[in-house]
Fold these 3 entries.
Entry 1:
Amino acid sequence: QMIERDEVRKAILTALVTMEKPAGCGEIAKEANLPTPEVVGRMRGLLKDGLVERPVEGKYVISDVGREVLW
């Protein structure tokens, strides 16, 4: 269960690294090959943990902390 959650987090963060500009949950889901509702459900936690930032409402970018977690 925990590994699966981790894989989803990694897929979302990897997708955000790939995308150059702030992206919505639908775009992230497509890039990460995940269902959109799963991405939507995870973003609040990623934001709270400081792994992503939300420069504009509904759009996300990976943070420096998020990059460190990936590497």
Entry 2:
Amino acid sequence: TATLGELYDLQADPKELRNLWSAPAAQAVRSELMERLARAMLEAADTSPYPTAWPDLAGQMRVTTRPGDL
């Protein structure tokens, strides 16, 4: 089963042997962390009016000015 993240209780499990990400008891912590990550990503988003370039699957550089072009 694929896990979307990792979450450890460093006091009870300092060697990070038991991933608590999928544990029902960790739902509140997981939700809080995901919300914080989403907010940080939005704050760090490039709001430049200039085009953004990135390589496509073939390694060719593509340029876009609209988010929908991704």
Entry 3:
Amino acid sequence: RLLTGKSFAHLEHQDLWRRVLSLLVARGPHATRIRKVAAHLDWEDVMWGRASREDMLTNIIEANYTFETSQ
């Protein structure tokens, strides 16, 4: 949706969405895969099938990773 030029003004955290759009444009439309994953997942979520192990571990890694862009 971001790459189609449709407005994302209704979304919260506009500063983050602008950064995401900038990165998507720089990398090209087919270089990135995006999936919605619940935040704050834990082993119980994995155990009950509410999330995959990969989703939970990715959340942990990304929560501790800082995205830096050149401006």
